[in-house]
Design brief:
Length: 145
Amino acid sequence: MDRDPSTGQLLPGHRVRPLRRRGPSKAELIAEYLEPKRVEVMTKLSELAVAGDPKSIALFLAYIAPPPREPEESVSIPGLATATTLQDRAQAVIAAVADGQCSATAGERLLRCLDIVARAVEIDELKARMDRLEAGRPGGIGEIA
């Protein structure tokens, strides 16, 4: 390593990790190579998969015929719109999941949204508190009165 013998620090211009090599990555090179042969490769892969080759079956299922995504669920949570606090809203979502009015997945997504809202509210409250503290201090923060 290129270090200063007196301090042991790295010399200017030395990097701890080598930079990523310039140009396209290996994956990009492979994709570029296979693009003109895409139909032939997919045909051969499907033939091998039908013939019972386990690796071909796995590749075929993972990339050519992946499982469909779950459709988005439209839910209506009783009491969610009228709840006044975030805690009341979270309890309404949990009650709806417990009663079977929405799936656990939809409930989890709603609770994540409520968590994001709670963080935003917390940040707003902290900012307002800081503004009040700074307004009461002569000269503001960082200045000597």
